[in-house]
Design brief:
- The protein has 365 residues and is mostly helical.
- It folds into two domains: 176 residues, no CATH class; 152 residues, no CATH class.
- The protein is built from 13 helices and no strands.
- Helix 1 crosses helix 5, helix 2 packs antiparallel against helix 5 and helix 7 packs antiparallel against helix 8.
Length: 365
C-alpha cells in the first residue's frame, strides 16, 4: 500500500512537472509571437519575394557573375520604381483633392442646366431634375446640406492615400529582407528543407519543392501580372493627367488579382478622358489602355511557367481575407499563403491516398 501511494505521488509529481514545462514553453512561444507579430507580414512577404525572383537572380548570376551586385541592383531598381512614382503621384493626388474641396467650398464650378428629358427618367426623374437645376444655379448652396459627407469622403480618401504610402514602405522593407535572404540563399534553402523534413519526415523534400513551385506560380502568374498591368495603366493615366491615378491603378491591381476584368475600371477612365477631349492623343490612350487590360491573356502563360494549378476561388478568398486581416499587403500575402494551404491539403490527401493504395495492394497480395 505505501508503495502504491509512493508510485501515485511520483506520477502526480511527474505530471505536474510536465504541465509546468509545457506552460513555460507555451508562454515563451506566445510572447515570441506577440513580439514578432508586427513584423510577420513584412517578413513573410520578403520570403515570398525571395522565392519568386530566385530563378531570375540565378540566371543572371550564371550569365554575368557577381551575385551580390545583381541582387543590389535589382533591389535598388525595385525600390526606386516604387518610391519615386508614389512620391510624385501621392503629392499630386493630395493637391487634386484639396483643390476639389476648395472649389466646392467657393462654388466656382459651373454646371450646365438639365434638359427636359431628365424628368422622363424612371423613378428619380423629377428629383434629379430639381437637384441638377438647383446645382446649375448655385452649386455651393445645393451641396451645403451634404458638406459633412463631402468632407468625410475627402478625409477617407486622404487616409487611403496614407495607407497606400505605408504599404509602399512595407514593400520596400520586404524587398530589403528578400535581398538579404537571396544573398544567403544556401543557408536559407538548407534551413527550409531541414524544417520540412523535421515536420514531414520522408516527404519533407518533396513538400519543399512543391511549396516553392506554388509560391512562384501564384506570385508570377497572378500577382506578377496584376502588378505589371497596374504599373502600365498608372503610366498611361499619369501621362494623361487622370485625377487619382494611383487609386485607379490599385483598383486595377486588385481586380486582376481576384480574376475580375480590369476593364471595369479602365472603361470609365477612358470615358472620362474622352469627356475632356477627343483627339488623336485620346484615341491612342484608349487603345493603349485596352491593350493593358487585355494583356493578362498573354502575360499569364509566359509568367506562370512550371507551377501548380491553384483554383481562382482559392486566390480570391486568400486575397480578400488577407487584405481584411493585414491591409493592402495582405492582398498579396493572403493569396500566396492560402494557395500554399490548399496545396498542402492536396499534398496531405494525396499522401493518404497513396497509403490507402499500399494497404489495399498488400491486402490483395
Amino acid at each position: 500500500m505505501p508503495q502504491q501511494k509512493s508510485q501515485r505521488d511520483e506520477k502526480v509529481s511527474i505530471a505536474i512537472e510536465i504541465a509546468i514545462k509545457i506552460s513555460i514553453i507555451a508562454l515563451v512561444v506566445y510572447m515570441s509571437y506577440l513580439i514578432a507579430k508586427p513584423f510577420m507580414a513584412i517578413v513573410v512577404w520578403g520570403i515570398i519575394i525571395a522565392v519568386a525572383i530566385s530563378p531570375l537572380v540565378n540566371m543572371l548570376e550564371q550569365r554575368f557573375g557577381h551575385r551580390k551586385k545583381i541582387i543590389t541592383a535589382i533591389t535598388i531598381a525595385v525600390i526606386a520604381s516604387l518610391a519615386l512614382p508614389t512620391y510624385a503621384l501621392s503629392g499630386k493626388t493630395i493637391e487634386t483633392s484639396q483643390n476639389i474641396m476648395q472649389t466646392l467650398q467657393e462654388g466656382n464650378i459651373t454646371i450646365p442646366p438639365p434638359t427636359e428629358k431628365v424628368k422622363e427618367w424612371p423613378v428619380i426623374g423629377e428629383q434629379a431634375y430639381t437637384f441638377w437645376d438647383n446645382a446649375s444655379h448655385n452649386l455651393k448652396k445645393t451641396l451645403a446640406p451634404f458638406s459633412k459627407e463631402i468632407k468625410s469622403s475627402i478625409k477617407t480618401l486622404l487616409s487611403s492615400i496614407g495607407g497606400l504610402i505605408g504599404t509602399v514602405f512595407l514593400f520596400i522593407g520586404s524587398m530589403i529582407i528578400a535581398a538579404l535572404l537571396l544573398i544567403g540563399s544556401e543557408g536559407a534553402v538548407k534551413f527550409y528543407k531541414d524544417l520540412s523534413c523535421r515536420l514531414m519526415g520522408d516527404k519533407g523534400k518533396e513538400w519543399a519543392t512543391l511549396s516553392t513551385l506554388t509560391i512562384r506560380s501564384v506570385v508570377n502568374g497572378v500577382i506578377g501580372v496584376a502588378v505589371i498591368q497596374s504599373f502600365f495603366a498608372l503610366i498611361g493615366m499619369a501621362l494623361m493627367g487622370v485625377p487619382l491615378a494611383m487609386v485607379w491603378a490599385v483598383g486595377i491591381m486588385f481586380l486582376t488579382i481576384i480574376q475580375v476584368p480590369a476593364l471595369l475600371i479602365i472603361g470609365p477612365v477612358i470615358a472620362y478622358v474622352f469627356a475632356q477631349a477627343s483627339g488623336t492623343t485620346e484615341v491612342i490612350f484608349a487603345i493603349y489602355m485596352v491593350l493593358v487590360g487585355a494583356s493578362d491573356g498573354v502575360l499569364k502563360p509566359i509568367l506562370m511557367g512550371r507551377g501548380v494549378d491553384v483554383p481562382m476561388l482559392v486566390i480570391l478568398i486568400g486575397a480578400i481575407g488577407g487584405m481584411m486581416l493585414m491591409g493592402m499587403i495582405g492582398l498579396f500575402v493572403g493569396a500566396v499563403i492560402f494557395a500554399l494551404a490548399y496545396t498542402l491539403f492536396g499534398f496531405w490527401m494525396g499522401d493518404l491516398n497513396d497509403e490507402g493504395k499500399t494497404v489495399s495492394d498488400a491486402t490483395l497480395k
